[in-house]
Specification:
Elements lengths: L2 E5 L5 H9 L4 E7 L5 E8 L4 E8 L4 E3 L8 H12 L2 E3 L45 E6 L11 E7 L2 E8 L7 H7 L5 H7 L5 H16 L5 H30 L2 H22 L8 E2 L2 E2 L7 H23 L2 H7 L7 H6 L4 H5 L31 H24 L19 E7 L4 E8 L5 E7 L1 H12 L8 H8 L3 H5 L1
Parallel strand pairs: 1-4, 5-6
Antiparallel strand pairs: 2-3, 3-4, 7-8, 8-9, 10-11, 12-13, 13-14
Helix pairs in contact: 4-5, 5-6, 6-7, 6-12, 6-14, 7-8, 8-12
């Protein structure tokens, strides 16, 4: 798809964007900047399947915050402050998002020129103070008991009830977006797919589509089929993983261990398809690296076997009264708050948000091939589990259909050796977590001057903080697993 670009004066930006974002079918994809001299606001029109980038030139490093009127903007603006030194005035809770106390106050990583002054306020992080008789805090992390990525959670509690959860991330910030601009474009795909390894296929696909958007080319129909199979196999593996994790946090170890075994089958499907259990090195700009057609009958057989094997396991899991009691009415996010904060993926659709990028934006065979949108209205842990189960079943069925209908043709087209001058490109993919966006901007020499990534977790971490309010401390691990968010996908 082509990224449309328009401009709006900074002083007119909020009055222009606010009514657009309140129209049905419009959503905020990202707020960022190219070099610190402008704000870019990405609006996605799901009704017309369009992406429009609104640019607002800046005269200083200050601008009026959009967060008081569009709640979803609050996280984007915190990241803008860290990466470009752009300070939003009237932001409800401005604090550093990625750069912790160890970083120099003068470090502004993505600013094109040396800053006139430092990055504003101290890097000292002050969590929200919840006061009252009997209120106490439970700090957790960033180093956890399990082998997981680091993040800090600070619970403000009364007895065993959580009143507020403060989430602090950025511990695995690696400067991915800046490094992408330093690489030859032919090497960028290797870093793109490694940015969040459990979403390697989705990241590789979003990157490839963004590059192809710059060149204004389309890949072969066969390559689209193979890319979609790769994406859906990744979704299958991760949904099985998340359901198994939820079972483990409930204490249903029989289901947890069974899901671990079945996830291994899905990872073996990935290895047969791409040569890698994490699916690295397969999807590339122009198509796919090689033709795995001879492996497809075996992959289809595995998908068919897995679909039949999962059915009684899931039935046993979901019919258990203890399981339902632990999941029902726990970790609820209302549809209104899910809409306000832009929740996406299974977390959003479990709260009645009818948005699946596969229905709106071109990637793989989508939206030419339609998939059912799995939705629930409860917004609780049970609803998020049900959405994953429905998507798991439809993805397994779709893999079999795509293999049966695989067309003939080439698997990769050759692209020019250099990116076009003054170009822009966008890739939007429905990863297993939800909406994934990759943006590319090139300069007058055809060099990548800005590469932006927005993982679904950026939208959904706020959803987790909302979900645990007025729930028991002991329910947090289950709520957390039901969202299944990425630290590295957020931190980049």
């Amino acid at each position: 798809m082509k990224l449309e670009r328009d401009s709006v004066k900074l002083e007119e930006r909020i009055d222009t964007l606010r009514p657009l974002l309140h129209q049905t079918g419009n959503r905020l994809g990202l707020i960022s900047s190219i070099d610190g001299k402008q704000l870019i606001s990405l609006l996605l029109n799901t009704a017309e399947n369009r992406a429009v980038c609104w640019e607002s030139p800046l005269q200083t490093n200050r601008y009026h915050s959009l967060a008081p009127v569009i709640s979803q903007a609050h996280w984007f603006e915190r990241t803008l402050w860290d990466m470009f030194g752009l300070e939003p005035e009237n932001h409800p809770r401005l604090k550093h998002n990625l750069l912790h106390e160890a970083y120099s106050i003068d470090l502004i990583p993505l600013l094109a020129e040396e800053p006139v002054s430092s990055n504003g306020k101290s890097r000292e992080y002050s969590p929200m103070a919840v006061k009252g008789d009997g209120i106490y805090e439970i700090p957790v992390g960033p180093i956890h008991a399990g082998i997981i990525e680091p993040g800090h959670f600070r619970f403000s509690c009364l007895g065993e009830v959580i009143f507020n959860l403060e989430i602090r991330l950025g511990y695995v910030h690696r400067g991915v977006e800046k490094r992408m601009c330093e690489l030859p474009w032919g090497k960028m795909r290797f870093l793109a797919e490694a940015a969040a390894s459990d979403s390697a296929a989705a990241y590789a696909l979003a990157h490839s589509i963004a590059v192809e958007s710059c060149f204004d080319v389309a890949v072969s129909y066969k390559a689209d089929f193979l890319r979609t199979i790769s994406l859906e196999v990744e979704r299958i593996a991760m949904h099985i993983n998340d359901l198994g994790g939820m079972a483990g946090d409930i204490g249903f170890l029989a289901i947890s261990s069974t899901m671990g075994r079945l996830r291994g089958v899905a990872l073996s499907m990935a290895e047969q398809l791409t040569g890698s259990r994490l699916q690295r090195g397969f999807i590339c700009p122009g198509g796919v690296v090689f033709d795995p057609s001879e492996k497809l009958p075996s992959i289809k057989a595995s998908a068919n076997w897995l679909r039949k094997e999962l059915k009684p396991v899931i039935s046993f899991f979901m019919s258990n009264e203890v399981v339902r009691d632990r999941m029902e009415n726990v970790g609820k996010v209302s549809p209104r708050l899910a809409a306000d904060f832009g929740l996406v993926g299974p977390a959003g659709r479990a709260s009645d948000q009818k948005y699946d990028a596969r229905h709106h934006f071109v990637h793989g065979v989508y939206p030419r091939v339609r998939v059912p949108i799995a939705m629930e209205v409860g917004g609780d842990v049970l609803s998020r589990a049900k959405v994953r189960i429905a998507e798991l079943e439809s993805s397994l069925f779709l893999v079999e259909q795509l293999i049966d209908g695989l067309p003939e043709g080439e698997t990769c087209i050759r692209l020019p050796d250099a990116l076009p001058n003054n170009a822009s490109g966008i890739g939007i993919v429905e990863s297993h977590r939800g909406e994934l966006i990759h943006l590319i901007f090139t300069d007058s020499q055809g060099q990548c001057c800005r590469y932006a990534i927005k993982d679904a977790s950026v939208n959904n971490w706020t959803g987790l903080a909302i979900a645990v309010r007025n729930n028991l401390v002991s329910d947090f691990p289950l709520c957390n697993k039901s969202f299944g968010l990425s630290y590295s996908g957020h931190d980049l």
